[in-house]
Structures are given as structure tokens and as C-alpha cells.
Amino acid sequence: MMNWKTIFNPFERFDDKVLLGVGILATALAILMGYWTGTYFSSIYRINSLDKVTVQAVAVPTLISFSYAIVILFVLGKILNSKTRFIDIVNTVLISQLLLVLLQATDRLSFVKESQKKVIAHQTHPSDPLPVLDIAVTLTMASFAIIILIYSITLYYNGFKTATNIKKWQHIVLFAAVSMIMTLVCQILLSKYI
């Protein structure tokens, strides 16, 4: 039976091989969606646009950023708990990125881009009539993106917590700090080579 705990922490409920299958599917979807929208992951939680779109230009940085996160988190997990399993860390990273594919898809919604342009244009000409519908669309999409990000980060945190069994606040702070540094370093490294 599905409940809130299952939604926010599927790692405790589902078999690790099922989660791995879903995670691999999520990665394939991220690459396909990236090809369709001209975007790629320069790190977990960072989607960038591409000038020249090829499957390789989308797949390579996306796979590097996911792999980088997995390796760093696995090392951290082993430091915090020697019983941390590799598959649990892989599942944590891949499952947490699943819904970000929806954010990639919003890049193809032309009405969203048009609304954003009209809202920005209104700021330069405030005497023009207020674009209420465009503001509503922009705010709705921003809210949607924030909800997706919060849910994704919740999955990321709960997955790592389940994989490593961390409970001390110091470990949680270390996990957060390592995650932020890892994300920034990955973006910097990929921007130099891609």
C-alpha cells in the first residue's frame, strides 16, 4: 500500500534491483529528454542548454555528472558507515534525478517561454497593461519547478540516509556540505571540457 512514507522514501519500501531498474530508466529518459530539448546535466540539480545537440553531447556530461555524484557519495557513505552498499548510493542518485526530467521537458513549452518574455518586457515598459495571464503562467511554472526540486532533494537526502543509516546532525551537515561542493566542482569541471 502506498503512503506518504513510500512517496518520500521509496528506498525503504522497494527492492534495490527494482529501484536500480527505475534509476537506469530515469537516466535513459534524461538523455532522451536532453536530446529533445537541447539540454544536459552539468551536475546533479543543474541542467544546461546545448548549442550543438547530439546524443553524445547530451549523454557524456549527463553520465559523467551522475557517476561523479555516485562515486563521491559512495566514498562519503563508506566513511560514515562501512556497511554502505554501492547499489544503494547508485539508486539514491538516479532516483533523485528522475523528476528533473519533467523540468527538462518544460524547456519545450513555447507558451511558457513566451509568458516569461512578456513578463520581462513589461518590466521595461511598466506603463503597458499588466500581463496577468503571463504572470500567472510564470508563477505556476516557478512553483512547479520548486516543488519538483524540493521533492527531488528529499529523495536524495532520504536515499543517502537510508543507505548509510546516518542519524547525527554532524553527519547530515557534512552530507549537505559535500553535496553542494560536489555539485559546484562537477559543473566547473564539465564547463572546462564540454
From TrEMBL:
Q: How does it sit in the membrane?
A: Multi-pass membrane protein
What protein am I looking at?
Yip1 domain-containing protein
Q: Where is the Yip1 domain?
A: 6-185
Q: Which GO terms describe its cellular component?
A: membrane
Q: Which residues cross the membrane?
A: 18-38, 58-77, 89-106, 135-157, 169-190
InterPro entries cross-referenced by the UniProt entry: Yip1_dom
User: One Pfam match, by short name?
Assistant: Yip1
Which organism is this entry from?
Chryseobacterium oleae
Q: What is the lineage of its organism?
A: Bacteria, Pseudomonadati, Bacteroidota, Flavobacteriia, Flavobacteriales
- Which key words are in the record? Membrane, Transmembrane, Transmembrane helix
Where in or outside the cell it occurs: the entry states: Membrane
